[in-house]
Sequence to fold (654 residues):
Amino acid sequence: MKLIAKLVTGAALSAMTIVSAAAEDARYAWYASTVHPYFDEVQKGVDKFSEDFGVEVTKRLGQDWTQDNQNENVAAMAAQGFNAFSIFPSDVSGARGLYEELAEQGVTIVDFGQATKEPTPAAFYVGTQLKEAAMLATEELIKSMGGKGNIINVLEVPGDNTRLRQEGVEEVVAKYPDVKIIQTVGDLSSIEDSVEKVQNAIAANLGNIDGMIATGYTPTVAIAQLLTEYHENGGERIHFYGIDTDAVVLDAIRAGHIDGTMAQNPFGHGYIPMVLLKKLSEGYKPREGVHSIDAGVVPVTADNIDTYQADISALTKNIIDNLDSKYLTN
Amino acid sequence: MFLTRLKSGKIITGAESGIIGAALILVILFTLSSDSFLTQYNLFNLTRTQSLYIFVALSQAVMLATGNMNLSVGAIAGLTAVIFGYSVDTLDLGWPLALLIALGVALLAGAFNGFVMTVLGVNSFIVSLSTLFIFTGFVYGISEGYSYREIPADFVRIGRGNFLGLPYLFYLMVGTLIAVWYMFRYTVFGRQVLATGSNLEAAKLSGINTGRIIMGANLLSAFFAGVGGLLWVSRLGSAQPAIGQNWLLISFAVAIIGGTALAGGRITAIGLFCGGLIMVLIKNGLILVQANVYFEQAFLGSIILLTILLDRAREVWSRKAGKS
Fold:
C-alpha cells in the first residue's frame, strides 16, 4: 500500500515537474498578417497581458495578407523556439497546413480575429462570432428603419467569412415580412471599389432605399464617407449599420449621417488568447466540445459613442473571470 | 473649321471611332434598360468616377506609349495621398503647400523609377515591380495603416463639388485630356515619346535622347498617379493608405480599351476618354442588372475582352476594306 502511495505521489510530483517545466519553457508569440488599425488595437491587449503576468510576448506582423507569407514567417518563428502562438490566420482554410506542421512540433496555437475551418489544430478561437454579429447589426438596422423598408446588403470579398455574414443578414431579414433585401453588392476589396459599387447601387435604387448594411471593414469606411456626402447634399435619409470603429465611421455617427456600427473587442482578441496560452502551458486543457470563445460585440450609436469602451472592457473581464469554469479544465 | 478637321480624320481617327461607337452602344443600352441610368445622381457619379479612372489610366498610358510600363502607379498614388494627409493633418500645413509637397514626392518617386530604368538600364517591369513594394512600404510605414481625416473643406470641395451638374473633376479631366492630346500631336516631346515607343533603335538613330524621353515619361506617369491619388483624397474626404491598391488592373484596362498600344508608340486622348467611360459603364451596368456578386469578376473580364475584340475586329475589317 505504501509502495502504491509512493508511486502515485512520485508520479504526481513528476507530472507537476513536467507541467511546471512546460510553463517555464513556453515562449509566447503573437502573429498578425500585416499593418492594420485592428491589429494595433489587438496588440494593446497583448501588451496588457505582458504587463499583468510579467510574461514576454514577441509580436510580429507579416508583409501582406497572403497565407504563403504567413507560413514562411510563422515557420521561421517556430524554428527560433517559439511554441505558444496567438495567430490571425490569413486564410481560414489555407492556414490548416501550417497549423498541422506546428502541432506536430508540439506548438500550441490559439486563433484570434477569425477562426480556421474545423477540424483545426488550434486549441481555441477567440474573436467575433461573425454570423451573430451580422445578425445583431441587422436587427439594429431594422429597428432604426422602424421595422420596415428596403435594404442593400454590402458584402466584402467573397469567402467563408463573407458567406457567414451574408447568411446572418438574410436570416434576420427573413423574420421581418415588411423588410426586403433589394440588392446585394459584393467583392469589395478596396476603398475605391467600395465607393464606386455602393454609389452605383444607390443610383440603381434611388428613392427606394431605406437602409444599408455592411459587414466588412473596408465597405463600412467607404459607406460612412459616401453617406456623409449624400446626406450633406440633401439626399433622403438612408439608415446604415456597419462594423468596426474606424475614426471615419465614428465621425459619421457623431454627425448623424449613419446610425451605428458594431464595435468588436480587439483588446480582448489580444488579451484572452494570451491568457489561454499561458493556462494551456500550465497544464489546463480545453473543455470537451469548447473551441470558440465569443469576445463579443457592442452596437455603437450616437447615444453610447463616448462610453462603449467600458462595455467592451466588461466583456473581456467577464470572459477572463469565467475561463476556468466555462472553457478550460484542469 | 472643326467639322472639316473632324471629317478629315485629324480630330477623330478611324481607330478612335470604334471605341467611341462601343461607348455609345453601351450608353444607349443602359438608357433603354434602366430608368435609373440617366438620373442626375447617376450621371454625376459616373462622370466623377470616369474622371478618376482617366488619371489612373494616364499614369500607365504615358509609360506604355514609350514601350515601357509602371507597375507602381497605385503605390505612388497611395504615397502621395499619405504624404498629403500627413502634411495637413499631422503637420497642420496649409493644403496648397501640402499639395506641392505631395506632388514633389510623387515626382521624386517617378524620377527614381526613371533613373533606375535609364541610367542603370534595368527593365521597367522589374524596376516598377520592386518600387511597388518600396513605395507601399513607405505608405504603411508613414501611416501605420491609419487614415488622415483632417482634410480641409476647400480641398474636399474639389472632389465633391459640381458646376452645371457635372463634377469639377470632369472639367479637370477634359482639360487634362486636351493638354495630353495637344502634347502628343503637336509638341516635340510628345512626338519623340511616340517615336521612342514605336522603335527604340530607330529613335536613337534619329538623334532622339531616348533616355531623357523615358525619364520624362516616368515623371509624367508619377505626376498623373499623384494627381489621381490626391483627387481620391478630395473625393473621400480622408487620406486612406489603401488608396491605389486596386489601380494596376484599371490602369492597364482603361488604357488598352482606350487604344493605347501595349507595345508602345500609340496613345489617344479621345480613346482614353472612351476607355474610362466604357469601364465605368460596364461596372455601373453590372450593378443595374443586379449581376451575381460571386460571378462579377467573370462578367467584368468577359465584357472588357469582348469590347477589345470588337474594336480589333473593326480595325481588321477597315484594313481589309482599305486594301480592296
Remarks:
- Chain B has 14 helices and two strands.
- The beta strands of chain B are 162-163, 166-167.
- Chain B has a mean pLDDT of 88.
